[in-house]
Amino acid sequence: MKVIINTPNAPAPIGPYSQAVIAGNLLFVSGQIPMNPATGELVMDDIKTETKQVMENIKAILTEAGVGFGNIVKTSIFLTDMQNFAQVNEVYGTYFTSDFPARETVQVAGLPKGVNVEISVTALI
């Protein structure tokens, strides 16, 4: 059985998918981009600002599911330019304190709406 997680505090899906799905004791959060959920506008000032918005969107979904960043076991970071890795990592790291999740970071040719970073996570419920 699966449970769909949806919150107005994170961007609405821009396609046929859910913000997150609970299956068993796992929460699968769809890739989040730097979109302000209140305005629907992209936050594209710089890569740090983009990453912060992505992480805040993830936080809103985790909160709706009743968990936090400490529950995350796996993250996937997608970048359009690996030169942004250090800055993304700097912001990303402020959301975790210990027992860091497993992670991969990959460079891709493009991301939805022309953004520079997208992050998805899997967490324990």
Summarize the structure.
This protein has 125 residues and is α+β, with helices and mostly antiparallel strands. 22% of the residues lie in helices and 30% in strands.
Written overview of the protein:
The chain has 125 residues and is an alpha+beta fold. Helices cover 22% and strands 30% of the residues. It contains 2 helices and 6 strands. It has helices at 47-65, 85-93; strands spanning 2-5, 20-23, 26-32, 72-79, 102-107, 117-124. The protein has a 6-stranded mixed β-sheet with strand order 1-2-3-6-4-5, covered by helices on one side. Helix 1 packs parallel to helix 2.
Essential attributes:
125 residues, alpha+beta, six-stranded mixed sheet
Secondary structure elements and their pairing?
Elements: E1 2-5, E2 20-23, E3 26-32, H1 47-65, E4 72-79, H2 85-93, E5 102-107, E6 117-124
Parallel strand pairs: 4-5
Antiparallel strand pairs: 1-2, 2-3, 3-6, 4-6
Helix pairs in contact: 1-2
N→C terminal distance: 14 Å
Indicate the radius of gyration in whole angstroms.
14 Å
Structural class: alpha+beta
Query: In one word, what is the shape?
Result: globular
Task: Note poorly predicted spans.
Answer: none
Number of strands: 6
Question: What is the mean predicted local confidence, pLDDT?
Answer: 97
Helix proportion of residues, in percent?
Answer: 10-25%
Number of helices: 2
Q: Beta-strand percentage?
A: 25-35%
Task: List the secondary-structure elements in sequence, H or E.
Answer: EEEHEHEE
Spatial arrangement of strands, main beta sheet: 1-2-3-6-4-5
Largest sheet descriptor: 6 strands, mixed
